[in-house]
Amino acid sequence: MSPIDSTIPYYPVNDFGPLMKGLVIGGIGIVHVFLAQFAIGGGMLMWYFERLGQRGHEDARTFVDGYFKVLVLVSFVVGALTGVAMWFATIQVGARTIGLMIDEFHWLWATEWVWFAVEITAGYMFYRYGPRLADRARLRLLALYALASWMSLFWINGILSWQLTPGRWLDGGGVWAGFGNPSFLPSLLFRTAVSTTLGALVGCIVINTMDIPRDRRAQLIRRAARFAAPIAAMPLLGVWFVAVLPGDSRSWLLGGSMPMTMFVGVAAGASLLVGGYVIVGLIAQRLYINGATATLLLALAFGATAAGEFVREGARKPYTVRGVLYSTSLAPAEVAALRRTGATVGDPYPLREAYPTAQLARGAKVFRVLCDACHTMRGANALVELTRTWADDQLRLNLAKLQRTKGFMPPFAGNAFDVEALVQLLRWERDDRPAMFAQAPASPETLAQIARWLDEAGTAPAGEAR
Amino acid sequence: MMWPFDASIESLWLALYLLTFALHAVFVSYVAAGTGYALVAALRGGADPIAARTRDWLPFMLGAGITAGVGPLLFLQLLYQRRFYTANLLMGPRWGAVVPALIVGFYALYLAKAFEHRRRLALGVGAVCFSFVAWSWTELHQVMLDDAGWRAMYAAGERFHRDAAIVPRLAIWLGAMLALFATVAAWSAPVSERRRLAGLALAGLFTCGAASTVAIAIHRELDPAHGWT
Fold first, then answer.
1. Which residue in A has a C-alpha nearest to residue B91's C-alpha?
2. Which residue, A255, A193, A285, A225, is CA-closest to A48?
3. Tell me, what's the pLDDT at B3?
4. A316 CB-near residues (< 8 Å, 6+ apart)
5. Contacts of B90 in chain A (CB under 8 A)
6. Quick check: A446 and A304 in contact, CB under 8 A?
7. Residue contact B63–A80, C-beta within 8 A
8. What is the mean pLDDT of residues B172-190?
9. A169: Cα separation from own chain's centroid
10. What is residue B153's three-state secondary structure?
11. pTM higher than 0.90
């Protein structure tokens, strides 16, 4: 059983200014995923070209011994560092979430680390000693590098996909039930196809820098392009992935939430453009691709990766671990308790600034505990702007019935006093923080109405847990 | 049996944490002390085969150190989760600067290896970066221990934790790093160079001992052992 039970661990909360915390994690994550997936595909491509080289294709050998291995070396080091950066950033935004993931999957994470260490070791060994090794040893070392990098993806993908579709883990199925969750296989195969495509595209760029005649570069490009063929399977894999999502998440991606639907459109559209050029142009028609065009395709692939990662993250709302932990770092079972005690009674950390009234200070604490993970006050996804035109009673109702206001919001984990305090804070912020804030204390009737709305909404989320 | 010999899962985590941390310490000691050694050699000028070999190995050692650091990071989060996460959050962006410092340091090492005319600058930048990282980890450790001061640190918005124990702890680590670097460097050194490396190792051990003695004399007690929370 996870150590995170009924005792709520409150952590200090840092202000990211106008930046939405999800965007910060997303930005780092996209770079990390892009580099890591390229390192996987690049390793596979190097093994393939090494094999070609050993069968007499001299230019393939030159390719392997030249720039490409340096690029892979760079990407997997920066990939490792951005992975650590992700870890640190996740602690900043959702310490309880990463803690839960560590508690549940630390042995699998340790396994992933062992494979990553093998990958790094094999990569460095090839980089440093490759020219001196016999052909068989070179091939085996590259095979080990490629296998280890893919195995690293294998393990981490299981942990990440568990967040979105915990599956039978929710029924007490244990670590393996969580690892082998419904979206594990479609996401693993999808990411593998992305990896080979990225490896092929960067390969095409590097081939264009080689000092050999165009017809020989064209031969290498045709070989590299074949490596991107798995992109043809991505539409099917994407459909499979969407099919295993929880019903409410699926509905947001397919029109229920226009921002999410647009991200799906960007990811699918960019992938289609890359895939169309690869399959029809490079493979079927054996076209030549110059460095500029290959770079453009790589940029499109980056855009597709970025949009896809946003879709994956957004589809998880209102949870960070579906059915287990909300984005607020509160467990579903804790919402009812906080409805009784108030959202901030257990928070030991004081506010960093002074507020004109105790109620506004309470509202600031409520914002910090319940809203700060995904919203800013005035920057990205700003609560002030989202609620600017709402009348006061409308705001009270929408907060009290939060999970009914928007299906991807968690239930409000506080009592009527917390709702009213947050309402007054938003009004004070909307009015540019006047020093003298004329507010009438909420009447007992108003507080009673808020309490009724909270009861009507209940403590369950709008959607199903799985 | 008493902890940590009671065969509990936490004992296993602790053992694995110490094992993986020891491996990480060997690599990062080589990097931190080796960068310092190579910098001093570059400033003094002249041929120094130890420095030349060190510059050649530094980028690999840093990559290995970063990779080897993931293991202890994992077990640290199991053993001291709340303390570690709270310290991360309290130090905030100042702690987050460790990652870009490592990236800059990494590429500085490559520059130092490849370009002789930029060597001193590159090694200087690397030394600053790795010193920052070493200091940051030491400070984070102290924040982890100071749970009585967390609220005040958060309220004040302080990102730096002023603690008299940081300097002696850093000195102990720097001494240990020097000894570890010299030991690893001696592995591939000819006999004629081992005397100098042995001297460095002894200097490192002496620094450890002296810093520990001073720290104990000032504080008059060793830090009490902390269990996991």
1. A14
2. A225
3. 67
4. A163, A164, A249, A322
5. 12
6. no
7. yes
8. 95
9. 21
10. helix
11. yes
